[in-house]
Amino acid sequence: MVRTVAKNILIVSLFFLVLMMGGFTASAQTDQLIYDEAGLLTQAEAEELRALAENYGEQQNVKFLFLTTNSTEGQSIEGYMGDFFDDRADNTGQEDAVLLTIDIGSREVYLAGFGTAERTLDAKRIDLVLDRIMPEMRSADYGGAFRDTVVTSSRYMEYRPGVNPESIFLKTWFHLTIALLLAGGIVGSMLYNVGGRVTTTPGTYIDRDHTRVRSEQDRFRNKTVTRSKVPQNKGGGGGGFGGGGMTGGGRSFSGGGRSF
To answer: Which residues are CB-contacts of 84 (< 8 A; sequence separation ≥ 6)?
Structure first.
């Protein structure tokens, strides 16, 4: 009898242990944000990036994810990224995410927005983010590129979808310039009116009854010819590709990629 009770307790304990281990595994998959298979980040950089991604991710209610690889095994970086996200989303249930993928073998980077981020970080905004991080990518400052991806993407997602976050009309210096011009115009108008109006004109001193034009003459003095060189577009920098699409698992996303 005692052996039977002990055996049952052992079975129940093992059962709960398996459940707990499964829970820990699911939790680890859910919490993991950085998949640095290419080893581009130091331990300190990875910890700093994780804290930053968690902070901004909570503000935007999305997951900021990072994937690096030495090879996409014959796939395009877009297809490799899509398969990775399908697998992660199936296991964690997380659909709202911003995913930056780097293939160091082909020197390509791809940024994608899934779920709600597909709308708040559309293809145009993704291009702006890529413009920001490409100098860091080319100089191999991957930690800096990852940080700027989080901060810049989060800032853009604060704006209403469809609005260009880099529009001149949204810049503080532009608002300040307009305010100064308006203030200068008002002050100038006040100073102009302080001295009273001038009522005399050149016509005041001309006797039109006894004045007339005696002769007219036109003389050609010189001719000046200027030439300007038409600039040619020689290109430069990595080419862009992508624009969003659908993963193999049927998840739509906004996206854009560059070579570096």
So the answer is: 35, 67, 99, 101
